[in-house]
Amino acid sequence: MDQSINLLIADDHALIREGLRKILSIEPRINVVGEVADGQQAVEFCTRNQVDIVLMDINMPVMNGIEACRRIKEIKPNIGIIALTIHDQDEYLFELIKYGISGYVLKDVHPDQLIQTIYGVARGESFIPPAMTARVLAEFSRLTSGDHHERKHQALTDREIEVLKQVAKGQSNKAIAKALYISEKTVKNHLTSIFNKIGVEDRTQAALYAIKEKLVDL
């Protein structure tokens, strides 16, 4: 049986927290280990407890979800964070990507899509709504353009480019290993090298880089 996923719900609305708990409680692999009402509580909970994924609201009192994301990733970088928000705004998404978010979904998302996003993030995948990808790529391109910008992927080996393309397609380490006939450990080693060479910190940033540099089609 697949390992269970310890999930924390962070939202300042009790009704939303209760609704999310009811939706997720029917999934045998998802274990809701706690609920908090602000970003500071989310940081403190993740510091004290074993958490795999946080469903994080953006606008919360005391500390907002963006700052909470930054602090949690500093303390426990392996925790996956999914922003759950009513805001379809570029600045929120881009800030969260910089801090290592794994997923971004709007609060009108279908429950099945939310559950599949949680499972995907647990597998090491990332999710950005397709409708927002082009706008984020435009901003990413703007910030990385200029006289000193160079095609860093030219330093990648052929195998590393193959791995990067798979990451950009949203494939997990297990799926990449199977597709390329290598071990998951080798995939992880390639990813470490790729991140260092192209100057990114996580899979989402690497995927955006690959798409921007036209290493893979949208």
UniProtKB/TrEMBL annotation:
Domain (HTH luxR-type): residue spans on this chain: 149-214
Sorted UniProt keywords: DNA-binding, Phosphoprotein, Transcription, Transcription regulation
GO terms for MF: DNA binding
Family annotation (SUPFAM superfamilies): C-terminal effector domain of the bipartite response regulators, CheY-like
PROSITE patterns to which the protein is assigned, alphabetical: HTH_LUXR_1, HTH_LUXR_2, RESPONSE_REGULATORY
A Pfam family of this chain: GerE
4-aspartylphosphate PTM sites in chain numbering: D57
Record GO biological process: phosphorelay signal transduction system; regulation of DNA-templated transcription
Residue intervals of the Response regulatory domain: 6-122
Domain of life, source organism: Bacteria
Functional summary from the UniProt entry: May play the central regulatory role in sporulation. It may be an element of the effector pathway responsible for the activation of sporulation genes in response to nutritional stress. Spo0A may act in concert with spo0H (a sigma factor) to control the expression of some genes that are critical to the sporulation process.
Name the record gives this protein: Stage 0 sporulation protein A homolog
